[in-house]
Specification:
single chain, alpha/beta, FAD/NAD(P)-binding domain, Enolase-like, domain 1, seven-stranded mixed beta sheet, 13 helices, globular, binds flavin-adenine dinucleotide, binds nicotinamide-adenine-dinucleotide
């Protein structure tokens, strides 16, 4: 039986980062992961492979649609999907091996196998070689999430699949039906549309991207439609079946749709299957999440939980922040995550990025606010890039001018939002952002001018 200061269950962005921070802080750390590769959903079948394909498919589309405007002749352009997929696989392998290297360097003991609690402070690791019990003073559950089921839709891995299959189609689907107009649907729907598929997104709500500022989601919807994504809003999918030569998707009160491929992406749910939580007195809430205190402590003493398996946005960087804060609290007594300043990004083209409150949230909460907006169209760098769609919007408290939310739809929004997150972390006002000198010509000037528009007025509008 092995004994550790800290045992982490799950090696996703929450778990592997917690393990590394623990080792850096001098703890004797072990991490158990059931998959052969480290890195979790994010590195193996999530953030990283999807972004690799988004980049490749974007280059293909730009070469096809935009090179001519730059005076570049791209005649004879063709797609080698096999090569594109193997590049994506190489990116993943390099990164997952990188985590294994970091584990080694930091002397973290890595158990490969399925973990389950067998009692307080005790975890059984089951692998092909048998079972062993690992004991630890502190145990962090970082088991992540899995695809949410939709009644009547049974993924078969062939015609009906999840994001994992959609990262690996061996040919471009003729007609891909995406169930769910959330982040996965728009990112992976964009990939396959750019590569030549007809893509229809079926969304239950009357808008896409629930949770994103409505004005931004509406602007994005119009641009994505222009790009060729087809949408059916207000449309509840009730079933999907695989037939010999096609798949059939059933919609409440509407005609069914026949297509070549179905991508189910109607959300994810926490992953606690077979963990033996009952043996240590942990009960999940009605959404399957493990309840924790502000210090990530579960109902069982010495057992903590972080990442997708607890409340909050299911995002890799949120899991990482929690991993660091949880371990720092264990080792030093201090550790904190600023949940008001967690950015989120949809890697569509253009990107959609936000941090803080949406206008709808501010209205619901009765908070008075001022708005500043600036269009990419009026930015010199955006013009040079030929990427002039979208705008940035800064929301600031009407009385104190403190920034309450920033929403950007436009080129490189995912990178631009970092400045807004930093500003919000330091409780900056819109004037602080407006008076910060930004290099010219850069896209970051869009954010500066949006901040100026809150009070003194933007220069270039
Ligand atoms: C297609 C897709 C794209 C995404 N893109 C982004 C993005 O661009 N940006 C972003 O921020 N987020 C993205 N996400 C979400 C992101 O992947 C998750 O929020 C993140 O991975 C959560 O980290 P985690 O450590 O909590 O869990 P996970 O990454 O899910 O890791 C949990 C790990 O625990 C292991 N495990 C589970 N149970 C056991 C057990 N009993 N024993 C041993 N091991 C176990 C699992 O095998 C897994 O490796 C994406 C998700 C998907 C599906
Ligand atoms: N770039 C990123 O940060 C990124 C990328 C991918 C995934 N993720 C994370 O992964 C998680 C899962 O993503 P997702 O896109 O699966 O979920 P999501 O929650 O973002 O979107 C699911 C969508 O499906 C719709 N829906 C639900 N039931 C339906 C039905 N019966 N018929 C039609 N539509 C229906 C919902 O209204 C919603 O719009 C998200 O929480 C997200 O945070 C993040």
């Amino acid at each position: 039986m092995s004994n550790f200061d800290l045992l982490v269950i799950g090696a996703g962005p929450g778990g592997y980062v917690a393990a590394l921070r623990g080792a850096q802080l001098g703890l004797n750390v072990a991490c158990v992961e059931k998959e052969s590769a480290l890195g979790g959903t994010c590195l193996r079948v999530g953030c990283i492979p999807s972004k690799a394909l988004l980049e490749s498919s974007e280059l293909y589309e730009v070469a096809r649609e935009e090179f001519a405007a730059h005076g570049i002749d791209a005649d004879g352009l063709s797609l080698d999907l096999e090569k594109m997929l193997s590049r994506k696989d190489r990116v993943v392998t390099t990164l997952t091996r990188g985590i294994a290297g970091l584990f080694k360097k930091n002397k973290i003991t890595h158990f490969q196998g399925q973990a389950r609690f067998s009692g307080p402070g005790k975890v059984v690791v089951a692998s092909a070689d048998g079972e062993q019990t690992v004991e630890a003073k502190h145990i962090i559950i970082a088991t992540g999430s899995k695809v949410a089921k939709l009644p009547g839709v049974e993924p078969d891995g062939q015609r009906i699949g999840t994001s994992t299959e959609a990262l690996n189609y061996d040919k471009v689907p003729e007609h891909l039906v995406v169930i769910g107009g959330g982040v996965i649907g728009l990112e992976l729907g964009s990939v396959w549309r750019r590569l030549g598929a007809r893509v229809t997104v079926l969304e239950y709500l009357d808008r896409i991207l629930p949770g994103i500022d409505a004005e931004v989601a509406d602007a994005a919807f119009k641009v994505f439609k222009k790009q060729g994504l087809e949408f059916k809003l207000g449309c509840r999918v009730t079933g999907a079946q695989s037939k010999k030569k096609h798949a059939r998707v059933e919609i409440d009160g509407q005609d069914p749709i026949e297509c070549s491929q179905v991508l189910l992406c109607t959300g994810r749910v926490p992953m606690t299957d077979g963990l033996g939580l009952d043996t240590i007195g942990i009960a999940v809430d009605k959404r399957g999440r493990i309840p924790v205190t502000a210090g990530f402590q579960t109902a069982a003493e010495g057992v903590y939980a972080i990442g997708d398996v607890i409340e909050g946005p299911m995002l890799a960087h949120k899991a990482e922040e929690e991993g660091v804060a949880c371990v720092e609290r264990i080792a030093t007594g201090y550790g904190h995550v600023d949940y008001n300043a967690i950015p989120s990004v949809a890697y569509t083209h253009p990107e959609i990025a936000s941090v803080g409150k949406t206008e709808e949230q501010l209205k619901d909460e009765g908070i008075e606010y001022k708005t500043g907006k600036f269009a990419f169209m009026a930015n010199g760098r955006a013009k040079a890039l030929n990427q002039t769609e979208g705008f940035a919007k800064v929301l600031a408290d009407a009385k104190t001018d403190r920034i309450l939310g920033v929403h950007i739809f436009g080129a490189r929004a995912g990178d631009l939002i970092a400045e807004a997150a930093a500003a919000m972390t330091f409780h900056a006002s819109s004037e602080d952002l407006a008076r910060t000198c930004h290099a010219h010509p850069t896209l970051s000037e869009v954010l500066k001018e949006a901040a100026m528009a809150v009070t003194s007025g933007a220069i270039h509008s």
